[in-house]
Amino acid sequence: MSQDYAAFRRLDRAPEDVFELVSDIERYPDFIKYITALRVRNKQVDGDVMRCEAEARIRYKFITERFTTAVETDARALSIEVGLISGPFSALANHWRFHRLSDGSTLVDFWIRAAFRNPILQGFFDANRMRAVRSLMGQFEKAAQARYAPVGGEASALDEEIQALIEKLERD
Fold first, then answer.
1. Which of 23, 107, 130, 163 is 20 to 30 Å from the Cα of 100, by its Cα?
2. Full-prediction pTM beyond 0.70?
3. Sheet strands (E) in 75-167
């Protein structure tokens, strides 16, 4: 059974920079520790939209798997959509949205739905889902900090704005 999981995180980097980082899927093995190899196939660019297939090999502890996803990035909308083509999942989809905050920083909106065919893998994933998403977002944040200049001010000054935006996004 698949479950949805959403996460929001404020990054003190510009939305265009964070979008560029997450769109640069060919470099994921450089900074996402669980991805051991990644190959992009059938890449097509039409203006601000890029479509491709991404074949990834992942390793976590004793588990090694390979899966292929369809990826669509839209630079104008600052959004990324991912869907399953093949692999050990019965369901896999996720999206990224990058929202500009009033100080120029970014609220990252990440959503994932995932389910494994193998009940043992599913049990392991269910037990570690929140940790895995936090780890993944942390790895992207660390890469963004290494690549891009900071923008904005103190996150606490944006608490009300961030909360209002999250509430709006959850309603939509």
1. 130
2. yes
3. 79-86, 89-100, 106-116
